[in-house]
Amino acid sequence: MRTRSHQDRSVPRRRRLAATAALGVVALGAGVLVAAPAAQAADPVSINLVTVNDFHGRIEQVAPAGGVAALAQAVNQVRASNPNTVFAAAGDLIGASTFTSFIQNDVPTIETLNEAGLEVSAAGNHEFDKGWDDLKGRVQDLADWEYIAANVYEKSTGLPGLAESWVKEMDGINVGFIGAVTEELPSLVAPAGIQDVEVRDIVDSVNAVADELTDGDDANGEADVLILLIHEGAGGTSYAAATDPASPFGAIVNGVTPKVNAIVSGHTHLAYNHQVPYGGDTGLRPVISSGQYGEKFSNMEIQVDPDSGEVLSMTNTVVDMYWDHDNNPATPTVPRYTVPADDPIKLLVDDAVKAADGPGSVKLGSITADFNRAKLAGGAENRGGESTLGNFVADAQLWSAKRTDPATQIAFMNPGGLRADMTFAPDGVLTYREAATVQSFANTLVTLSLTGDQIRQALEQQWQPAGAARPFLKLGISKGFEYAYDPAAPAGSRIVRMTLDGVDIDPAASYRVVANSFLASGGDNFSAIGQGAAKRDTGQVDLESMVAYMAEIGTATPDYVQRSVGVTLPSAGERGHEVGTTFDLPLASLDFSTTEPRVETVDVAIGGKPAGSGAVTLALPSTHGEGSGSATVSVTVPEGITGKAPFGTPVEVPLTISTATGTSIDVPITVFERADSATIGLPNKLIAKKGSAVQFTTLVVAEKRTAVTGEVTIYDGKTAIATATLTAGDGGRVKVKLPTLSRGVHKLSVSYSGSDNVKPSESPTIPLLVW
After folding, report:
1. Which of 172, 141, 206, 412 is nearest to 304 (CA)?
2. Pick the CATH number of 677-770 from 3.90.640.10, 2.30.42.10, 1.10.10.10, 2.60.40.10
3. Collapsing DSSP states into helix, strand and coil, what is residue 629?
4. Is the pTM of this model over 0.90?
5. Taking the domains of the chain in order of start, what are their residue ranges?
6. Which CATH number fits domain 564-672: 3.30.470, 1.10.260, 2.40.50, 2.60.40?
7. How far is CA 583 from the centre of its chain?
8. Is the omega angle on the peptide bond into residue 646 within 30 degrees of 0, that is, cis?
9. The domain 360-556 belongs to what CATH superfamily?
C-alpha cells in the first residue's frame, strides 16, 4: 500500500550511478573517428525538506512553541526560495494535545496542518491513542497528508495497515519517504485499541521497502533519494546517544540500509542534528530531530545530480521558532516569524480558541503554587523524576476511585500521562482548559487488586527494559504510600522498603490499587500492574475525576514531601553495623526540580537518635533518569539504640532520612553493640634481677558483668612478648610467665582484642626495672 504524489516515470532509471560521458562517434575522411564534444553537466537539483516531530496539537503560539500559523510562515518562506520543497513530519502530530485541540478531538490541528501543506508523516504512537480504527478511519479521512509506517500490519489481513512509503517527484528527481513507528507501540497505548495491529521489526521492514524503491522496477515506485521518517529517537542529544548500537535507536541508525540517505526522527522530544557515516552517496547521513511542540523545525538542503540521481550533499539546520534581539536562540523571547492578522491559518486557530473558550474558562478551583513535572538540566520534562504534579494527580485519582470502590488504597500515575505543568500564574485559578491540558488522553480509572509483591514488581519496572529511550519512568504515587529504593542495587532488588500509612507492605497480602486504563493495561512496560486481578472500570474519565476532586477540595496546595527516596546502604558484617562506627551514606531523590522550595540539607537518624547530616546538591540529570537532589552523608551509628538486647545481639532499627520540607522515610538497618571493657596488667614485681621469673597478671572487665573471652597480648614497648587466651570461666583474669628480660627499664602493657560481645581495650603502661 504505497502512494505517489506524481506519475511514475515511463523509463526506469538506475539510482546513484555516477554520470558517464557518452561518446558520439562520426566518420571523417579516411575513417578517422572523432569524439563529439561532451554535453555540459546539468546543474544539481536543489530540494528542501522541512520537518517537525512531536507537535502534539500545539497550534497556538505560546513561547517557546511557535504555533502552527508561524510554522506555516516558515515553511512558506522555504517554498518561496525553492519550489522543490517537501513539508514532512516524524509523528505524534495529534494526541496529548493542549486544550484547544484536545477538546475538539484534534480536528483543529489536522485542519491547520492541512492548510500549512503538510504532505507526509510517520505514524507516531499518539496517533493510536483513540485506537486503530480511529487512525485508519477518521484521522486519515480528515488529514490531507499521508501517514506512513512500514512496520505496521493488520493481524486480520496480514497486509500493511498504512502506506509503507510515499514518493514525490521534483524536477525529475523522485524523493521517497519510508515511515516507521516505535516498536514500543504496544506498551504505549491501550492494548484494547490496537488488538488488530502487529508492529514488526523496524530495520527489517524499512530495509525491505528501501530495496523495493531502488530495484529498477517502476511498479514499486522508484526513488532517487530516500528519507526515513521514524517515530523513535535517541535518549540524549549527543552523537553517542544517537549511534549507540546497544540502544533501540542506535541499532536502527546502524542497521538501516545505506540506501536510506537521511533519518528524521522523534518520540523522545529531544533536538539533535548529527552527521553519521553510513557508506551511502554522501558518506555522511543526517540523523536529526526537531525537539517538540513546534518549538523548532528542521530545514534540510539536498543537492542531487539530475543525470544520475546521485545525492551530492545533505545539510540540515535546526531553527528555533523564537529568538532574542541578538539573534541568540539560547534565550528565545521574540517570535521569529510574523503572522499577519488576516492569515487564514491564524483565523482557523482563532476560531478553534473561541470554540474552546466556553468549556475551557470554567473555574475548577484554586491552586496556591505551581504543580510541576520533573525537569532535565536543559529545562525539558524529565519523566524519571518525582513530581508534585504526578503525586497530586495520584491523590485525585485515589479520592475519585474510592467513590465507586471504597476499598481502594493506592494510586499510581504514569509520568507520560502528564502533558503540561499546572502553573499558579497569573491568578492561582485552575480552569478546565488547564486541567485538560495536563491530562489529555481521556483514560478511564480502573481499580484492580495487586499483591504486595506485585506492587514491588511494578516499582521495579520503573527501570525500563534495557535500551529503552527513557530508561526510568517515575510513577506518581498517592499520599500514604511510600518506598525507599537503592539505585545501585541489581535489577529486581532495588526496592528496599514499601509502607502504606506507616505499615510495611505484606508481599502476600492483597491491596486495592487504582490506575488509569493505560497503566491498568500494562502500558509503559508496567506489566505487573496489567496483571492485576478483579479489574473494575470505574467509568470515571481521568479529567472528569480531577474536576470532581477540585470541586471537593476547592483549593489545592502542592505537597513538597518526597514519597520515595534513594538510599544505598553500605555493606556490613554478618551482624550489621556496630554502634560507634562511621560510614558514608549516598542518598538520591531528595528534592523536586523546578519552582518548589529548595532542600538544602538532609538529616539521618538511626534508632531515633541523630546520626549525621549533609548538604543536598540539586543535580538535574541531562537525560530521562532518576530525580534530583543528592547527598552523601557521613553517618555515625549512635549509642543506646539496641535497647535491652544482650551485647553483641543484632537488632533491626529504623534509619530515618528527613528534610525540612517534611520528607521522612525509614529503611531498616541492622546494628549491634558490644560492651565496653577495661584492661589492666600488673607484673608480680616491679624490680627484678636479670634471669629471675616475672609473672604478669591480666584482668579484663566488661560492663554489666558481660563474660570476657578472647586474646590478650602483652607488650614490651611496641614489641609483643607474650599472649594468652581468656575463656568464659576465667572471670577475665589470666596469668602469664614473661620471657627473660634484658637489663633496663621495660614498659609493659596489655592489649585485649575484644570478642563478639565485648569491645577491645588496652591497659596503662607499667614500668619494670631489670638489674
Report:
1. 172
2. 2.60.40.10
3. coil
4. no
5. 3-8+40-348, 360-556, 564-672, 677-770
6. 2.60.40
7. 30
8. no
9. 5'-Nucleotidase, C-terminal domain (3.90.780.10)
Confidence (pLDDT) at 723: 96
Strands in 296-304's sheet, in edge-to-edge order, are 146-148, 120-122, 85-89, 45-52, 296-304, 311-320
C-alpha cell of residue 726: 581468656
**From CA 273, how far away is CA 213, in angstroms rounded?**
26
Mean pLDDT of 254-275: 96
Highest mean pLDDT among 28-37, 140-149, 621-630: 140-149
SS (H, E, C) 241-304: HHHCCCCHHHHHHHHCCCCCCEEEECCCCCEEEEEEECCCCCCEEEEEEECCCCCEEEEEEEEE
The pairing of beta strand 664-672 with beta strand 577-578 = parallel
Q: Is the distance from CB of 63 to CB of 296 less than 8 angstroms?
A: no
CA distance 206 to 181: 11
Answer yes or no: same fold for 360-556 and 564-672: no
Task: End-to-end CA distance of the chain: give it in Å, rounded.
Answer: 111
In the three-class reduction of DSSP (H, G, I as helix; E, B as strand; rest coil), residue 435 is classed as: helix
CB 727 within 8 A of CB 712: no
Residue type, 481: F
User: Do residues 165 and 209 make contact, with C-beta atoms less than 8 angstroms apart?
Assistant: yes
Q: Over 80: is that where the pLDDT of 22 sits?
A: no
CB burial of 648-687 (b: ≥16 within 10 Å; e: otherwise) equals bebbebbbbbbbebebebbbebebbbbbbbebbbbbeeee
Backbone φ, ψ for residue 399 (5° rounding): -60, -45
Per the listing, cell 472500570 goes with 537
- What's the length of the chain? 771
59-87 pLDDT, tens digit each: 999 888 999 999 999 999 999 999 999 99
Q: What angle do CA 27, 31, 36 make, to 5 degrees?
A: 35
Q: CB–CB of 757/742 below 8 Å? A: no
Q: Which three cell numbers stand for residue 123?
A: 505514524
Whole-angstrom distance, CA of residue 261 vs CA of residue 328: 31
17: pLDDT strictly greater than 60: no
Q: In which region does residue 291 sit, left (phi positive, over 0), alpha (psi from -120 to 50) or beta (all else)? A: left
Task: Outline where 138-200 has alpha helix (H).
Answer: 140-142, 185-188
- Indicate the SS3 state at residue 455: helix
- The CATH fold assigned to 3-8+40-348 is Purple Acid Phosphatase; chain A, domain 2 (3.60.21)
